[in-house]
Structure formats: C-alpha cells, structure tokens
C-alpha cells in the first residue's frame, strides 16, 4: 500500500530526474541570453514551454486510480464469493492484516518487534502497537514532498523503511530494496560508509543463522544473542536509508551548483 505514493508520482512526473527548478533555471538563462535574437512569437512559445516543462500529469494518475479501483472491487468480489463458507472478507482481513497489526505471534525472526513485545507489559501493549505502526505514517508525506522528483528512489526508501519497521520481516525484504539500489549507482557513488554497510550485511547474514542455531536447536545460547543480530540488522538498514537519502540530496545540490555556475 505504501508504494502507491511513488507510483502516483512516477505517473505524474515521470522517471527520476533532477529537480524541476534546475530545468527552469537553465531554460531561463538560455532564453535571457538569446532574447535579442528571438521574435515575440518565439519568446512567447519559449515562456509557455518553460511553464509546462514539468507539470504534473493528472490524467494518467486518474486512469491509474480508476483501474486500481476496478481491479480491487473485482478481487474483493471474487474473494467474498470464495470465502463465504469460512467467514467471508472480515475473517480474511483479520487473519492477514489483523495478524500483522496485532503482532500476536512472537516467534523469533530477523526483526526486533518480537523481542520488544515479549518483554513489554500487557498494559502498555496497545500503546506501543500504535506507536510502532503509526511511526512509518509520519515519514510518508515529508519524504514524498522532498523526493517527489525521484519516485523510483522514493520507492526504494519506502521499501527499506517498511522492511525495517514491519512486524514480521524476512530476508526477501532486504533483497527487494537492495536490488533497486543498483538503479542509483551514479547518484550514490559518493555515499559514505558503503564498505561498512557491505561488511555489516555480510556479517549479519553469517551470524544470524549461527545464533539462531545456538539458541533454538543446541540450547547453548540465549535470546539476546539472536536479538543482537536483529538489532544490528535494523541499525544497518537505518544507516543505509539515511546515507543514501543524504547522498541523493547532495547530488541534487551539486547539480544545482553546476547549473548556476
């Protein structure tokens, strides 16, 4: 669901590109330098082009929302027909989304919520459930406003954050956003701590199954050993998101300086 925002921005603005202010600034400089050689008709056409160079395409977004709504209604109709003997849609939502939101299963996984909710008092459980699930909602709008000109990178950031804060993460979540990371190799060429992140991911991928085996199967370890690998994994994802976003914004600032020079 969180990827709807990058998809809408992708349909509206197109693929990743520098901020539209750079294009407007460059076009205004070119038009001002050649203003003496332009006729009034050409100058009016150039101003019209400048004003419409990066407008948001609402038509494609409307078509996307319409087709998604039709597809969603069709899927819900078929699901209600097939599940009418086992509780219907309400039972399906309770056992899928409800299971994720309530964090009922505290089996050890690569995340950190299972350990936290195993230790928290039942009186505060609902409060911390709201805090953890609402935390990601506060990041959607600021990131969308700041990275609206780079919807693909915004999707990468959203996937990384959701895989870090979700109730039941898996290794496949990291494989998804790490696969998208190659799309921004030029923009993130100067990213800090890249070697540290590479070694950290390798170390966590090696130590996590070892600690799980020592705790669950051999009984020679405890939960803190395995939780330490999950905590290190969450910290690595945090560093990756922060450093990649900082490098992308730094790349845009460098382009702005080159255009103004």
Care to give the gist of this entry?
With 261 residues, the protein is mainly α. The chain is 73% helix and 0% strand.
Task: Note down, in words, how this protein is organized.
- It is a single chain.
- This protein has 261 residues and is mainly alpha-helical.
- It has one domain (4-23, 55-260).
- 73% of the residues lie in helices and 0% in strands.
- It has 13 helices and no strands.
- The protein has helices spanning 4-13, 20-33, 40-51, 58-82, 88-95, 97-102, 113-119, 125-135, 137-146, 151-165, 171-180, 194-218, 223-260.
- Helix 12 runs antiparallel to helix 13.
- The relative contact order is 0.11.
Task: Please name the defining characteristics of this protein.
0% strand, mainly alpha, flat, 261 residues
Separate helix tally: 13
* Number of beta-strand segments: 0
What is the domain tally? 1
- Order of H and E elements: HHHHHHHHHHHHH
Terminal Cα separation, in Å? Answer: 42 Å
Quick one: overall form? flat
Summed over residues and divided by their number, the pLDDT gives a mean of 83
Measured by DSSP, the beta-strand proportion falls in under 5%
Please compute the radius of gyration using only Cα atoms: 24 Å
- Give the low-confidence spans: 39-52
Largest sheet: none
Helix content: over 70%
> Class by helix and strand content?
mainly alpha
